Amino acid sequence: MERLxxxxxxxxxxxxxxxxxxxxxxxxxxxVAVQGVLLGLAPVTVAHAFSLHLAALVLGTVAIKAVxxxxxLLWAIREAEVRHERRPSIGLLPSLLLGLVVTSIAFGxxxxxxxxxxRTLSLLVPVALSTLMIGFLLLTSRRKALSQVxxxxxxxxxxxxxxxxLADRLPLLVEMGVLLDVFVGAFIMGLVVFQIQxxxxxxxxxxxxxxxx
Amino acid sequence: MLLPxxxxxxxxxxxxxxxxxxxxxxxxxVVAGALVHLGLVASAWGLRPEPAGFAWLAFAPLGGLVxxxxxxxxxxxxxxxxxxxxxxxxRGGRAHASCLLVFLGAATVITLTRHFGLLWVxxxxxxxxxxxxxxxxxxxxxxxxxxxxxxxxxxxxxxxLLGIFFLATAQxxxxxxxxxPLMLEDLLAAAPLLHPAWLRGSFVFVLIGFGTKMGLxxxxxxxxxxxxxxxxxxxxLLSGALLNLAFLAxxxxxxxxxxxxxxxxxxxxxxxxxxxxxxxxxxxMLGQGNYKRMLxxxxxxxxxxxxxxxxxxxxxxxxxxxxxxxxxxxxALLFMVAGNVLLGTGTKRxxxxxxxxxxxxxxxxxxxxxxxxxxxxxxFGPFLSELTLLTGAVRAGATGTVxxxxxxxxxxxxSMGGAVLGMVLGPAPAGVLPGPRESRWLxxxxxxxxxxxxxxxxxxxxxxxxxxxxxxxxxxxxxP
Lengths: 213, 480
Known about the structure:
The complex is a heterodimer.
Chain A: H1 2-20, H2 25-46, H3 52-80, H4 92-112, H5 124-141, H6 145-163, H7 172-200
Helix pairs in contact in A: 1-2, 1-4, 1-5, 2-3, 2-6, 3-7, 4-5, 5-6, 6-7
Chain B: H1 2-19, H2 23-47, H3 61-84, H4 96-112, H5 116-134, H6 140-173, H7 184-189, H8 196-214, H9 222-229, H10 232-259, H11 263-285, H12 291-312, H13 314-345, H14 356-359, H15 361-374, H16 381-395, H17 399-424, H18 440-458, H19 462-474
Helix pairs in contact in B: 1-2, 1-4, 2-3, 2-4, 3-4, 3-10, 3-13, 3-18, 3-19, 4-5, 5-6, 5-10, 6-8, 6-9, 8-10, 8-11, 9-10, 9-12, 10-11, 10-12, 10-13, 11-12, 11-17, 12-13, 12-17, 13-15, 13-16, 13-18, 13-19, 15-17, 15-18, 16-18
């Protein structure tokens, strides 16, 4: 199971890097959905035995991260009629290079961290940190409001992965609360994206720069 | 049953208000919810209920203090909103009242919970519940404000979640003797066993994450926009209640660090962020042309003062807790007055507002009194709390910090004082219609808050002093 888990984590890392070189918004959303499925399956590979807790976590994660949220975001871009991320402030290739740098930093940092207690996947911490940092990179380097929502989701996914090290120690209520908050947050952001489009006829968050001192 | 009721009453109120078709009645539901909530809080002080819900909720001095403050500010805002909505439609449409009450429910969870995970969930819920209150579909600028608010705060709070995971890891690495995961009592009891490296990492992320929500510079960027663009009752609520909740979350983590003997690591970080916030506030208040943004930067300033006090520990931390009360009440009152000025003059530009003393005499008087209160002049509460904080800082030997605090605050007072004097004095511009008469709904809530701020300055009841001392003891503070 451990090798399967590490393979899953490698796939998560690949979706991160693929997001960095994708400029079609619908493709980006689908990549985030794929990442959602991978994240949903990850707890299975670290679990000791089947439990109701585990089943609820897997179902909740897949339903929210891989089905509901991507649908809302796809709806938002269809209604808003935008397809491409135009002129990201960092080009696609440079951002991939940056992503690789960030990933190697993450692996370096993870190697120096004090060892995690208990049995965990060897790739869990480095991939969690890479995903987190790549999410932050997406959030800050992309201009479309929708790409920023995707960046936020990827960042959350990184933190979620780190949380897996604690999966069987945290109460289900808290995990569900976290999922629900992320869901509502992204849902409201999706609505705001839709409003931005209607107001400004663009999803470019740079247009949102009137408020200054 | 009292503790669950404190959470459930606002949530139930939110549901009832949503089902009511009349906007006027919906705002009265909010008032009713606030009154019941405040009554329950008062009875909690009397009864001191046992922990409830698997000990996830408990009533303790520090949380109780913030809860009471939140409830008072919320009631004032609810009353003020009744008057405000007669002049400007409330944002969020039918959901306005429900969002307010959901915020109150989530805030109650934050103050009562002993579980860091639940604390996080409730904190994010406050962001989500307040976002629709800022957004006005007819106003492009509010769209920008709400976008920044959502994205910056959500990312900040996500970072705090990582910090909380680190805390749980520190606990697991410390062995089985550290008790139930992420429960405050167990963490405090077994603090010396916690893994120090994970614990320090945890504090850094929690401070940055919840510091974003609290408005500490340089993570404060959402705050002037959201406070500046939100309707004034909402600005008052954000400033008087929401920021303190984030401060409380940081104090919870600080308590664990201090118990684990890591206070020497956490303290300087807090002082550093605090002083930087004061400096940023001072810089951006110079020549600030928008009086609501000016008040927003004043919030950044006071959050900085709180961080400095908490970081210095001892008497300064006691002063910081006292300052939470005075500064929040004064801030909420100032934002309400700013709302009256905006309704009366129709502009947020400081320079375009003159002659308030003649146009809106009651609001003008409240504005001047509020300015004196917030800038720490006697006889108001913040004077006493800042004096306590500075005394504590001198005793702790932090002379440099004291000098920096005083210098920056003097600068800020000059900026704010100049702006307020310009608004209050001078002739009322000719040809400008006199604003709407100041209704009692619009002047009594801020006046009541002013009376409370004054009371805090002239008379600290022994009971309150005891509660403050007990609350401060948990975060390394001591009564003077």
